[in-house]
Amino acid sequence: MVNRIASIGVAVALALAPLGVLAQTGQPVPSATAASAIPRTGAGAGSNATRTRHRATLNRQRARATAEHARRVRATPNRS
């Protein structure tokens, strides 16, 4: 029963969302097939190697931050 009410509420919110945009701007809502909604592919999106390097950099930074945090946690606190 609760799931049904929740799903109806979500459906109503999704159905009425474009109406709020129209009321605010007075402009038509762009369709989902607009060029901006299409994911970029090809040369402009970046190659797989670029994404792989970026992901590796993020993982390396995360590992360094985690190790630094672990060192700080294990260090004895300064007590006066």
Give a brief description.
The chain is an all-alpha fold.
Detailed description of the structure:
The N and C termini lie far apart (60 Å). The mean pLDDT is 77. The chain has a domain of 27 residues. It has 80 residues and is mostly helical.
Helix tally equals 2
Spell out the helices and strands N to C. HH
Rg over CA atoms: 24 Å
Number of strands: 0
Strand content: under 5%
List the SSEs and their pairings:
Layout: H1 2-25, H2 48-74
Question: What characteristics describe this protein?
Answer:
80 residues, mainly alpha, 2 helices
